[in-house]
């Protein structure tokens, strides 16, 4: 059945359908020289979405999912062809009736603003994020995804490169454990989180009476916070104190936040929810803050509020006073999770020492313990380093905003 893809404003609609699978006897081995990794045409990109929608559409219909993908390709981080859809195809097989090529595996990549810091020197670089890695059921177990990733890792070192400079790293988030992507060069990094339950209004009012006052953040106000400067200073300090160790990070800028917010706001639109205007909270005196995102899975029981980024001015130390401030910010996030009926509550990835200390303060008041969860199967933060040998690489600010 044909599907007309709802496109973002100003782009043409694409009418296509799920492509047929290649007959088993014609499917090439994964090591075939006829298999090539190539950028997808716009129609092939839509076909890839038609193939993978059941995996990632969550509570959306197919048409809503296709519309979401069009929107996410039109924001500042991805627009003007910055995002690339890739397909693993064969040069020896005939094209489909509509002229498209067979798709044995697919994924998407887009450039990310990043940093590489060493010995106190911080360089701005271009990195890549990888998402939507997919192989249709008819082709699974044949090694096609592995072939695609092996080819992709090398390809991304120079893809869309700036001024002839190598792209020193790429990141992805594995939902199939730690081993598969590691075999192809993406090292699994610490992937932990802590949870906070939603906080009803009465409990929040009682809790905040003993905590510092914090303010809500709008998207416009968030742009005024020097998150980039804070991270650059932090990278300089960290790399300067660990001679010879490489530190890398994805830039916590408005482009990355906007990509997440566009996704969130679209879900609110299709689910009939009000516009999510509050994007985080801040304590003005210290500059400490949280940037958050409401995330809607297929199962409403799995809806949650993610902390996209923890705003940590380099001058702020872990002390009883700053722990109280962070506790106030986390409590405000808990209140927001309750406000939007997000039953999982608040989730903070790879929490800092300050966040953990603040969590302990909150949990003591609730007579609970802080449980740091280590993820072994899903959302495994993974990074491929392409700019050197076996040197140690530390991923700084490994938070939800860098997810792709």
UniProtKB/TrEMBL annotation:
Superkingdom per UniProt = Eukaryota
Q: Where is the composition biased (Polar residues)?
A: 1-10
Entries under InterPro entries matching the protein = Acyl_CoA_acyltransferase, GNAT_LYC1-like, LAT
Which residue numbers delimit the LYC1 C-terminal domain? 206-404
Under what name is this protein listed? Answer: LYC1 C-terminal domain-containing protein
Q: Where is this region: Disordered?
A: 1-33
Which Pfam family is one of this chain's hits? GNAT_LYC1-like
